[in-house]
Amino acid sequence: MPLNRRKTATALLAAVAATGSLLATAAPASAAPNWQCKATTKILSLPNKPDVAVTVDICLAFTGSSGSYRGYEAYVRKVSWDGTGFGMGGKRLNHAYVQIRAEHKDRPMATRTERVDDYINGSEAGWRGAFYENARYWGTKRTFTADGALYADIANDGKGYIRYDLAGTRAV
Fold first, then answer.
1. Predicted confidence band of residue 132 (pLDDT cuts 50, 70, 90)
2. 18 or 71: whose pLDDT is higher?
């Protein structure tokens, strides 16, 4: 019996050692990403014209740190649109813009706007990227999201600007 106990103890120690070494060499949890994006599509109902689907892709990026200060930047990555009928039927929008916000706990810390009506009026379908109006924050607050809204003044509907809320990004 002592021989079996010795073999059992040796096998048990080997298993514990192997498991311990596996736990000790496990890969570290991956860090949170430095950026997040979220696309939202809204349908603009145009009077006596084909409706247009507008997709706005907003992003938030962590831009760096220095001591306790951190930088974040919210931006519009891309706006695309697609008319759902043949022909544009004239001017679709009097004005339209995207408002982008860098937010900390749903509180806007930086806001910028980007005009988009000229692009959407210019063709039935298309896209535009590389916008330059970025909402930047530099300070001690951490954990940000990007959020925003599309404001559209639809031609000939008499309603003025209508706000279409965009889905916010995940936290960075």
1. confident
2. 71
d(C-alpha 9, C-alpha 11), whole Å: 5
Number of H helices, E strands in the chain: 2, 9
Q: Which H or E element spans position 121?
A: helix 117-122
Q: What is the full DSSP assignment across 15-81?
A: HHHHHHHHHHTPPPPPPPPSEEEEEEEEEEPPTTS--EEEEEEEEEEEEEEETTEEEEEEEEEEEEE
**CA end-to-end span of the chain, whole Å?**
60
The pTM for the full model equals 0.77
CA distances 120 to 13, 85, 92, Å, are 70, 14, 8
Q: Tell me: the pLDDT tens digits for 150-160?
A: 999 999 999 99
CB 79 within 8 A of CB 54: yes
**Single-letter residue type at 41:** T
- pLDDT above 90 (res 165): yes
DSSP 93: E
**Which of 166, 128, 144, 131 is CA-nearest to residue 73?**
144
